[in-house]
Amino acid sequence: MGKNIRKLHESFQHALRGLGLCIHGERNFRVHMVAAFYVTIFALMGRVGVAEAAILCICFGLTMGAELMNTAIERLCDRQASGYDGFVRNAKDIAAAGVFVCAAACAAVGVCIFLGRGVLWTAVQFLLAHLWALMALLVTIPVALWFIFHYGRIQ
After folding, report:
1. b/e string for 29-58 if b means 16 or more Cβ within 10 A?
2. Model-level pTM?
3. Which of 43, 90, 121, 145 is most buried as measured by Cβ atoms within 10 A of its Cβ?
4. CA 43, CA 41: separation in Å to the nearest integer?
5. pLDDT of residue 139
6. Using CA atoms, how far apart are residues 155 and 153, in angstroms rounded to an integer?
7. CATH, residue 114
8. What range does the domain containing 65 cover?
């Protein structure tokens, strides 16, 4: 039993290491993380229901999981190709298209929830009624931009 627990623990360690590699090295993954953060904040302020929150969580997981798979495919392709290879290019473009399709579907879900259900309007009303929250939200924007564009450059 102890050996199985150790293997499970190691599996989690490897997965978390891979997640860290992607956060550190992939700007697009950081874009997805920041988008999920702001969508979550607006969902809370807009008082989404439990079902909508669950759907948003599925969307976050789907898009970030697709980005992780895309990154793995790109790194394997880059490792195998010694120069330009049209087959490798096609594989990488198809993997990127997979992320795009997931992100587009999630954006459509967001439109349905935030515009169709009035969540965005409720969030805006919340921000207008609580200016401290608006200021706090505005303060996070430079931090988010730094995280997206500069975090991976620190060595």
Report:
1. bbbbbbbbeebeebbebbebeeebeebbee
2. 0.90
3. 43
4. 5
5. 97
6. 6
7. 1.10.287.3610
8. 26-153
Contact of 73 with 95, CB cutoff 8 Å: yes
123 in any annotated domain? yes
As for how many domains the chain has, the answer is 1
DSSP letter string, 117-148: SSHHHHHHHHHHH-HHHHHHHHHHHHHHHHHH
Q: Per the domain annotation, does 135 fall within a domain?
A: yes
- Residue 61 in any domain: the answer is yes
For 142-145, the CB contacts below 8 A with 24+ separation are 144/34, 144/37, 144/38
Amino acid at 49: G
Q: Is residue 4 part of a domain?
A: no
